[in-house]
Amino acid sequence: MITMARSAVGFALTSTALTALIGSAVAASPRGQSTEMEKTVRYEVPETVSPEAKVALQQVYVLLSQMAQAPRSAPSADEDWDRRNDMAEALIGPRVAANAEALGITAVEDTIGGVPVLRVRPPGHTGRGRTLLYAHGGGYVLFSARTSLTVPALMAVASGDEVISIDYTLAPRGNWQTATDQVIAVYRGVLADRQPGQIGFLGDSAGGGLVAGAVLKMRDQQVPLPGALYLLSPWSDITGTGDSYATLERADPSLDAESLQWGADAYAAPADQKNPYVSPVYGDYSQAFPPTLIQGGTREIFLSHFVRHYQAIRSGGHVVVLDLYEGMPHVFQALAPSIPETTTSMQRAAEFFDAHLTQR
Q1: Domain map (residue ranges) of the chain
Q2: How far apart are CA 156 and CA 190, in angstroms?
Q3: For 137-149, what is the HEC assignment?
Q4: Is the pLDDT of residue 107 over 50?
Q5: CB within 8 Å of 224: residues ≥ 6 apart
């Protein structure tokens, strides 16, 4: 067991480290070099965000700009991916630990359904008869439950619930079948102690796509569905489709289309990338689907994913809320855990779970 004491809140890098470690955080110009104007746009913090966010994001963007100088090449072997993940773990581990320490959470390693997990509990946790399951981001190729503690820690504190972080097998050593099966295995394990309506799911970036895809898969397997979903900046379509891939790529400080595609190809073969379990924006929402909250920022290449996924779920007649935040980058909650925008987003998520999950 690791018990975290309180201290000053730092900032974390989760899926925002993706492009620096798989590729580059700066989109290339036609000549292969980013112009100074493109860099300025990419790392500009809008005046319309909160003062606290402006300070925090300026610090983050300095680091991202430095990380953007990393060599850019697609990994060609499993060992290349392993090395890059080791780099990612070393880079963000201390910052994530500082965030968790500041929140006073307790993290306990466990295994459920044969899958390693991390049980994240808020201070003074006594149990409310509910459980939240979390899948982390990282483009399906980076990070772990341990280095993705910030979002589940924030959610545990905001909701008062235990959050179980699923340490699914990363691509290319695993793939979309592996990951979705592992998510469902953990869910089935939790069903031994909980009713479906007492269980919620959350996931950020790739984890958001994984959560939604796994729920579509469990529905097709006739597994009872969880009570609610919370998707933070979900990678709902790994095919690189959507208007914001053209309009926002050079404004997104964290992600770019080319290195995202490297991760997508490691996770699923091109022929599988429109499978709804892989890219849940293509799911059949005329059938049952849980109430869903989708959050994101207006500086994300994935913005079209949020809109399209929201429209798909709503067209099926289901409860779905699209909650967007001005000037915020990809998974801003992990980047800047103590800013007002993050506090608001977590409070709204906790209220969403309160409205749609049942207790004992």
Answers
A1: 2-356
A2: 17
A3: CCCCCCCCCHHHC
A4: yes
A5: 191, 196
Kindly state the average pLDDT of the residues 249-255: 93
Quote the pLDDT of residue 65: 85
* CATH code for residues 2-356: 3.40.50.1820
Determine the pLDDT at residue 40. Answer: 76
Query: Is residue 163 within a helix (H) or strand (E), and if so which, with residue range?
Result: strand 162-166
Is it true that the peptide bond before 280 is cis, omega within 30 degrees of 0?
no
Give residue 13's region: left, alpha or beta (phi > 0; psi -120 to 50): beta
The closest alpha carbon to 145, from 175, 115, 113, belongs to 115
Distance CA 2, CA 120 (A): 10
Residue (of 287, 301, 296, 210) closest to 255 by Cα position: 301
Q: By the 8 A CB rule, do 356 and 319 touch?
A: yes
* Residue from 156, 136, 139 nearest 147 by CA: 136
pTM, full prediction? 0.91
- pLDDT exceeds 80 at position 43: yes
Question: Tokens standing for 299?
Answer: 């500086």
**Structure token pair of residue 333:** 């909650």
Quick check: 253 and 42 in contact, CB under 8 A?
yes
Q: How far apart are CA 96 and CA 242, in angstroms?
A: 31
Identify each DSSP E strand in 167-249 by its residue range. 199-204, 228-232
Share of the chain above pLDDT 90, in %: 77
Instruction: Evaluate if residue 8 carries a pLDDT over 70.
Output: no
Query: Cα–Cα distances in Å, from 64 out to 42, 252, 263, 342?
Result: 10, 11, 19, 20
